[in-house]
Specification:
- A hairpin with a 7-residue loop joins strand 12 (268-270) and strand 13 (278-280).
- Among the domains are: 4-151, Aconitase, domain 3, CATH 3.30.499; 288-333, no CATH class.
- Helix 2 packs across helix 5.
- The protein has helices at residues 4-13, 37-47, 70-86, 97-103, 135-144, 169-180, 195-199, 202-205, 207-212, 226-235, 302-312, 330-333; strands at 22-26, 29-32, 57-60, 91-92, 112-115, 129-132, 146-150, 153-160, 188-193, 219-221, 256-261, 268-270, 278-280, 291-294, 322-325.
- It is of the alpha/beta class and 334 residues long.
Length: 334
C-alpha cells in the first residue's frame, strides 16, 4: 500500500516497498536520442558486453535533425552505424522522442521507461514511471536491462474546478511551478490528481508529468484510467497487448499535499530568468516579442496547433516577429 510510485515499484519488485528504499529493477524500455546516444555507445563499448535485449532499446533522431552542423551529422552517422551493427529494431526519425514513444505504444501503465533526456518524466502521463538519466547509465542498462532507483517521497498535487476560457493545462502547470519553485520537487515523485486532471484528455495530461522536470522532480505521475486505456487501444500499436492494470495509490502517505482550485486562474507566463518566475499574462501585456516558437515536447500536439490556428485565423504575423511551428511528430503533421 502506498503512493503511486510506491505501488508501481512494488509490482516491479514483487514486494511492498516504501519511500527511501534503494531498488534494482528491470526496465521495460531504454530511450536515447541523437544528442545522448553517442555517449551511451561509448559507455557500452567500454563495458565490452552484448546488449541484453535489443527489443528494449529505442533510439531517436530528433534534437538536431536534420543535422544543423558537422558535429551533429557525425553523431547521426555513429548512430546509423550502431543501429546496423547491432540490428536494433526500434529506430525512429519521426518527431520528438517523447511523443513518438507514446504514439508507438512503448509507454504503458505500470511500466518503467528510462531515457537519456530530462523530460522522460513525460511517460508518467500514461501511469508509467519515466525518468531521465545520463548516457552512461543508459549504456549500462543496455547490457544489464536493470537500473538502480531510490524510491522517492511524493508530493500530491490535487487540482479542482474548471479553467476559464483561454486558460489551458500549461497555464495551470506554470502556475504550479511558480508555487513550488524550480527546486520544489527535487528528487520527489509529483503525483497529479483531482477532478480537473480526471476531466482532461491525454494531450493535456501529458503537460503535467512533462513539466515536473522543471521543478526538479524525479518523476511526475498521473494514475491510468479509462482515458489512458482508450488511447492505448485506439491510437497506438499497444492495442491488444493488454489488459493493462489501472494502478492507483492505496492508503498513501504524502510528504506534502498541494490543493489548488484552477477556476480563477488567468493565462500564465514563465518569465526570464527561471521557470518559477511566473506572472499572469496581463502583467506582461504589451511586451515586444521578437520570436514565437510553437512546438516542443510539451505543446506540439494536433490539439495545441488547432488552438493556435483558431487564434491566428484571419490575422497576419507581425513582420518583425519570427514564428516557428513544429508539430511533435510526423503523425501529427500528417
Amino acid at each position: 500500500m502506498g503512493t503511486l510510485i510506491e505501488e508501481i515499484f512494488s509490482r516491479k519488485s514483487g514486494r511492498a516497498v516504501n519511500a527511501g528504499e534503494i531498488l534494482l529493477l528491470d526496465v521495460d524500455y531504454i530511450m536515447s536520442h541523437d544528442n545522448t546516444t553517442p555517449l551511451a555507445i561509448k559507455a557500452f563499448r567500454e563495458i565490452g558486453k552484448p546488449i541484453l535485449d535489443k527489443n528494449r532499446v529505442v533510439l531517436h533522431l530528433d534534437h538536431a535533425y536534420p543535422a544543423p552542423n558537422v558535429l551533429a551529422a557525425e553523431n547521426h552517422r555513429k548512430i546509423f552505424d550502431f543501429v546496423k551493427e547491432q540490428e536494433l529494431p526500434h529506430f525512429f526519425q519521426q518527431g520528438v522522442c517523447h511523443q513518438v514513444m507514446i504514439e508507438e505504444g512503448f509507454v504503458t501503465p505500470g511500466s518503467i521507461v528510462i531515457g537519456a533526456d530530462s523530460h522522460s518524466n513525460t511517460y508518467g502521463a500514461m501511469g508509467a514511471f519515466g525518468t531521465g538519466l545520463g548516457s552512461t547509465e543508459i549504456g549500462v542498462a543496455w547490457v544489464t536491462g536493470k537500473c538502480w532507483f531510490k524510491v522517492p517521497e511524493t508530493i500530491r498535487v490535487e487540482l479542482h474546478g474548471r479553467t476559464q476560457r483561454g486558460v489551458y493545462a500549461k497555464d495551470v502547470m506554470i502556475h504550479i511551478a511558480g508555487l513550488l519553485g524550480m527546486d520544489g520537487g527535487t528528487y520527489r515523485s509529483v503525483e497529479f490528481g483531482g477532478e480537473y486532471i480526471d476531466s482532461l484528455p491525454l494531450h493535456e495530461r501529458i503537460i503535467f508529468p512533462n513539466m515536473s522536470t522543471e521543478i526538479g522532480a524525479k518523476c511526475g505521475l498521473i494514475a491510468a484510467d479509462q482515458v489512458t486505456l482508450d488511447y492505448l487501444e485506439n491510437e497506438t500499436p499497444a492495442r491488444g497487448k493488454g489488459p493493462f492494470e489501472q494502478i492507483r495509490p492505496v492508503n498513501p502517505r504524502y510528504e506534502r499535499v498541494l490543493e489548488l482550485d484552477v477556476s480563477p486562474l488567468a493565462p500564465q507566463v514563465a518569465c526570464h530568468p527561471d521557470v518559477d518566475n511566473v506572472k499572469p499574462l496581463e502583467q506582461v501585456e504589451g511586451l515586444e516579442v521578437q520570436q514565437v516558437y510553437i512546438g516542443t515536447c510539451t505543446n506540439a500536439r494536433y490539439e495545441d496547433l488547432e488552438i493556435v490556428a483558431n487564434m491566428l485565423k484571419g490575422k497576419k504575423v507581425d513582420p518583425y516577429t519570427r514564428v516557428i511551428v513544429t508539430p511533435a511528430s510526423a503523425r501529427i503533421y500528417k
